Structure formats: structure tokens, C-alpha cells
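Workshop exercise sheet. Pairs work together: one partner reads the sequence aloud, the other fills in the structure field after running the prediction. Swap roles for the next sheet.
Pair: D.N. / O.F.
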Amino acid sequence: MRITNQMLAKTAAKSGIPLQQNSLLNIMTKQYQSEENGLLSKIGKKKDDDLTFAALQQLKNRKNEKLQKHADSLNEFATKLNAAGEDSLFGKAEKSESTEDIVTNVQGMVDAYNNTLDQLKNTEGELNKFYMDELKTYVSDHREALSAAGVTAGADGKLVIDEEKLKNADLETLKKAFGSTSGFTDKVGFIAGRVSENASASEYAFLNQYNEKGIANLESYVANHYNFWG
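Structure field:
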């Protein structure tokens, strides 16, 4: 599927999320051109190996696998907190007059956020830098509401919880920080989903660069440098 600036902008606008960095399409082009060049360079250095095109497709990027796992977890916690209605975390809290489940999910979201941020820092790619900056921006934009609920950002950008303050926060304070009307969990969940998708697709992205010529180009390159059946 080809991804365009218009598609990404439309999706972001639907979620009320401003894309505050450079053109995503330009970023993706830069990232995947770099990835392809790196892999082609490795192919050239291993002419004496029986490295086949099929083997290239099986190469796993462990960093991206970890990133996808943490981003999926972040998306799950953020989505739960962002839900509205009687069966949501906040809806049930109003009935039970207990914020215990909300606190548990906030703690889980913070852990997942920090793990995702760490992995974004350690995983190559222009998009990963973009997403990391977006997450930090959202925390900054909502710092007052988050702080009131016991969550602040450290110098490294990671979130820190004041456990007592979080547990003692009333339902309205938690709603303003993490509920469906806060905007914070909606934005974080949106970006976490994009991080996961990018991590999942990255191992194959060098083959196509989001156009139909990439695979043919790489196949041609390999064919010209190897005699697999000789």
C-alpha cells in the first residue's frame, strides 16, 4: 500500500493530532533509502557467502521486534484509558467509587511509554525519531494535567510517577489527565499504533521503498553479484 502525505495528514486530522515535524513521506523516503543502501552494502561484502535473496527476506530486526512489542503495549493501555461509556475504566470507577483499576492502567501505560521511548532511541530510522519527538511533545502539552495526577517527565523524557499522588488523585483529576476528553491518551495511542506498524513493516520496507520498483531493483542487484546455482 502506498502511503502519501495526504493520507497521513487525513488520519492525523481525524484524531485531532497535529503532525509537528517534517513531511512524513520525506522522512520515510530518507529512512528506507538508507536501509536499502545499508543492506546492499552488506550484500556486496559477502560475495563469498551463499547469501540468497530468500535469506535476505528472513533477516529479523530484533530491535524492531522489541519496539513493536512495547508500542503495542502502550497502545493497549492508552486505548483502555481513552475509552468512554459505562463499561470503560472511568465509567466503572464512577459506579464503584474506586480508582484502583485506573491507577493500575496508568502505571502500565507509563511503563510501556518508557520502554517504547527507550527502544525508539535505540532503533534506527527517521520515522522513529519523528515518533519519539511527537510523544515528548504530547507529554509537554499536557504536563499540567499529568502533574496534577502524579505523572511528570524527567530530563531524559521518560515519565516518572509519584505513586502516592497518583493513588490519592480523585476521579476528576484522573479524567483530565488520562480520560477520553483529555486528548493525551488518544494522541499517545495513535502514535503507538503508528510506531508498531512501522516496526512491523521495516524489515520489508527496503524491498519496496513504498513503490513497485524496489523489489525488481534488489533482485537485479543480487542476480548481477551472485551465481547461486553455479
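Discussion prompt: The first helix runs from residue 5 to 14. What would you look at next?
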